[in-house]
Amino acid sequence: MGNFKNGVAALIAAGALTVAGATFAQYASELGKLAPEALKGAERPQPAQLKQIAPDLYFFWNDGSSNAMFMVTDEGVMVVDTQQHPADARRLLGLIRKVTDKPIKWVVVTHAHGDHFLGSPVFKAEGATIVSQRDTRAMMNKYYKDEVQRRQAYFKRHKLDPGELQMVLPDVTFDSRFTIHLGGRTAELIHLGPGQNPGDTLIHFPHARTLFLGGPYSRRNWSNYSFTPSVENWIALLRKAAAFDVDTFIGGHGDVSVRADLLEYAQMHEDFLKAVAAGIAEGKTRDDLAASIKMEQYSHFRNYHRLRGWVYALHHLLTTGKPMAPL
After folding, report:
1. Pairing state of beta strands 104-108 and 129-133?
2. What is the pLDDT of residue 94?
3. β pairing state of 49-54 and 57-61
4. How many other C-beta atoms are found inside a 10 Å radius of the C-beta of residue 260?
């Protein structure tokens, strides 16, 4: 029992699991114990900065939390993802207000991780209509308490009040495609099936030749494998996205990217999947795999220090057919 408790504490410190109610029982115990050395080596984030991608399109690279975008038109503003806390959202809103005083018309939530939607109350108060893919809304609803819980270290580190948080679910949902027409501009919301998460949404800005990928892509970052129902589809989604006729690719984390970055990311997932699947076929246990799989060619990617937890999550998926955190 002592080892189990120590393992859970290590996972919480690594940000690799949630700890609320039935969800904790569902998959926290499955992740097992992270070796203490796996918690070392986290890279210091770059200072947050706003980048203008096109005359009317802005990218907020928040390396210490999560990315966001906004499109400015004569009719109003569309925001993509709302940050990790209402205070973060207010900072984002302040940046928008330095560019325009037009009303916030639309907010898109790309996926159901709390660092991308817990700031939504701020934009809801501005009168925005919030939209997501239907599975994203379902995941937000199911895992809201867990997402809040696993952000506690971030809130404490930045002296943010968790009491400000409140559940704000999307007003509008869609299945595969949804088009927003605003001020003579078009933003195409596209669901190509699950990637990192059920409900993953891409946003295509044709006029700016830009694609925002949200959950499925984070430039040179290892991603959490606890939510994906299919790494194969995740890889296929990335390669389909790389085939879009655009010049600029932006993920939920990491800086502005080009096509080669996206393809490198897809290859990382494929290499990792093959390594874990091969080990399972050889009869290796989860802990054997966690000890032997190093993926050193991707050791320069952020969150590499959490690799052991991702091995556990992928082992669970491949041996049970279900993600640790199912829809």
Report:
1. parallel
2. 98
3. antiparallel
4. 10
Smallest CA-to-CA distance from 140 within 162, 117, 161, 163 is with 117
The tens digit of pLDDT for each residue in 25-79 reads: 444 444 444 434 444 455 688 999 999 999 999 999 999 999 999 999 999 999 9
* Tokens standing for residue 307: 């690799």
Please give the Cα distance from 203 to 92 (Å, whole number): 19
Q: Could you give phi then psi for residue 190, rounded to 5 degrees?
A: -130, 130
Cα-based torsion angle of the residue sequence 90, 91, 93, 98 in order, rounded to the nearest 10 degrees? 140
Q: 219 CB contacts (<8 Å, ≥6 apart)? A: 251, 253, 254, 255, 256, 257, 261, 265
Positions of E strands within 28-74? 49-54, 57-61, 68-72
Q: What is the pTM of this model?
A: 0.89
Amino acid at 197: N
Nearest 5°: the CA angle 136, 138, 140 is 70
d(CA 311, CA 317): 10
